[in-house]
Amino acid sequence: MTLTGTLESGTDLPPDERVIDVRDLRMRYGTKDVLAGVSFAARRGEVIALLGPNGAGKTTTIEILEGFRMRSSGEVSVFGVDPAAAGEPWRARVGVVLQSWRDHGKWRVRELLHHLGTYYARYATPAIARPWPVDDLLDVVGLTAAADSRVARLSGGQRRRLDVAIGIVGRPELLFLDEPTVGFDPAARREFHDLVHRLTDVDTTTVLLTTHDLDEAEKLADRILILNEGRIIANGSADELSRQVAGESEIRWTRDGQRFVHSAVEATSFVRELFRQYGDDIADLEVRRTSLEDTYMRMVRDFEGSDR
Amino acid sequence: MTLSVRAGVARGGIELRQTFANATDLWGYLFPAVLLVGTIFFMRDAHVPGTNFSLGASTLPSAIGMSLAFGGLVSIAQLLVVEREDGTLLRAKATPDGMSGYLIGKIVLVGGMSLVSVALQLVPSLFLVDGLHLDLTGWFTLLWLVPLAFVATMPLGAVLGSLFESPRSMGLVMVPLIGLIAISGIFYPITAMPGWLQGIAQVFPVYWLGLGMRSAFLPDALAAVELTGSWRHLETVGVLAVWAVLGLVLAPVILRRMARRESGSAVAARRERVLTTTIR
Fold first, then answer.
1. Which residues of B touch A96 (CB under 8 A)?
2. How far apart are CA B178 and CA B184, in angstroms?
3. Pairing mode, if any, of strands A231-236 and A223-228?
4. Is the peptide bond between A131 and the residue preceding it cis, with omega within 30 degrees of 0?
5. CA gyration radius for chain A?
6. Of A186, A188, A208, A187, whose CA–CA distance to A199 is shortest?
7. Backbone phi, then psi, for A42, in 5-degree steps?
8. B268 vs A88: CB contact, 8 Å cut-off?
């Protein structure tokens, strides 16, 4: 599999449209290279999902972009500024939702959102009103009923929604989400996905998220980056990725009450042949493209098997 | 800048109000007050050696000086250690001007908590002992001494809080601090200590805060039982100012270094460590 072609596909954006621009980012702890030359770019309003096994460098990448961690080498720019040296006006344009917060347990939900919102007021622009009015925000994340609860009393899912609310209270132009839906039930997950769609459709927020949930990545992301052992091994939309892996499709059907499953590279011609032979006897036909999960597993496995 | 000051003051105010609404914080206010009032009660008939002045009346201002020192050093340090672990500090870092707001909030919170504690200790004790009086000069002394107490101790507390990783290692600070209180003439006259201990005690702020408080509340005649037979205001200001400068120089450097290291994975790693050590 050729890797260099996919690496460049994200960086052919004109430079002034790049919200995030990362070139040859490297991070080394002692003798271990956690990031070994990562390059990608994100344009305004784009949703990028960072996938990869544990230890692949996802969190390190996101923390460097958030300005919370120094890098060993490489060029990083977010809104045209190096996050490691960025000031408070830059900070006001960026929203961060991390894993596992426990802070501000004694505060009440509304009180906390209102307080944190006040820091953003001076960074409002004619185009972007900051902060997000608290009652609207509570409504958007579904915390209206819990507005007067103490933060320590919230359920796990409510706490997570509060974290998201705090992440977006300043109406960020760029939002970092580190495994945002861990511990969500399916309904809460669906609501969260709707929220992200709303942010990106209405407010053209750029989103960089990490996740282990491949369905989530497929649903939310315009583009998926797969990171493995500190390198980007794939970069493209879910469809593009599955086309890169010469995938076989899965075909299911029934004939005379019997169920059949078959894998084929050329699904169309296989189905044509199927109908030519059996015609109307075929029922319940289902053709499925390689799922993102299959693609992902295949790419990670291929990478570990070869290029080292 | 003014906005982050306002946000910080608002933050401190909200957090101070929260301390009146939960059992742990209320206990933190009441327990030392009950302990001190009890001590004063049992000391009320004893006399300061060589005088007929009530020992309880003389201990009270000393203990209030100690409270100020303790509040400034320990409360700030503890809050920093705990809030670094639960992610509050990282949250401040993720907010524009959040760090200044956070620190100003802590100063308001700890200042307010100290004043509440002092009031809870002072008011009931005043009914137990005679001889304390606060004249105009006394008020004036408080006016410079209390702010100086905060400036001399809080930045140092912030430095301590930045240096220690876990709430449990804060115990390492408490032991020498309690030793320091024992030799600083708070509950036991410093004049009865051997000379070298007197010397050590006079390096640190606890002795001077006790002395300053005694000078505000006690009749001037009692200066005679102090070291060198005077209230030594000039020296008090001098020593406390040196500590204040030291703290104000060190605190920004050390706080910045500590804050720079904060990240999501740093908070997660610390949590992991706490969990595994508690289980073991």
1. 94
2. 10
3. antiparallel
4. yes
5. 22
6. A208
7. -130, 135
8. no
What top-level class would CATH report for the domain A15-242?
A: alpha beta
| Out of B97, B265, B268, closest to residue A119 by CB | B97
ipTM above 0.90, yes or no: no
**Joined tokens for residue A106:** 């004694």
- A98 in contact with B at a CB cutoff of 8 Å? yes
Name which of A68, A102, A106 is nearest B262 (Cβ-Cβ): A68
N-terminal to C-terminal alpha carbon distance within chain B: 46
Provide the shortest C-alpha distance from residue B174 to chain A (in Å).
25
On the CB side of A139, CA atoms within 13 Å amount to 5
Which tens digits make up the pLDDT trace of A143-160? 999 999 999 999 888 888
Which of B177, B163, B144, B171 lies closest to B72, judged by CA? B177
- Residues 6+ positions from A226 with CB-CB distance below 8 Å: A51, A52, A232, A233, A234, A235, A241, A296, A299, A300
What is d(CA B275, CA B280) in angstroms, rounded to the nearest whole number?
A: 9
Give the C-alpha distances (Å, rounded to integers) separating A242 from A5, A224, A297, A304, B35: 16, 11, 11, 18, 72
Least confident residue range of A26-35, B127-136, B244-253: B127-136
**Environment class of B180 (CB within 10 Å of its CB; exposed 0-12, middle 13-18, buried 19+):** buried
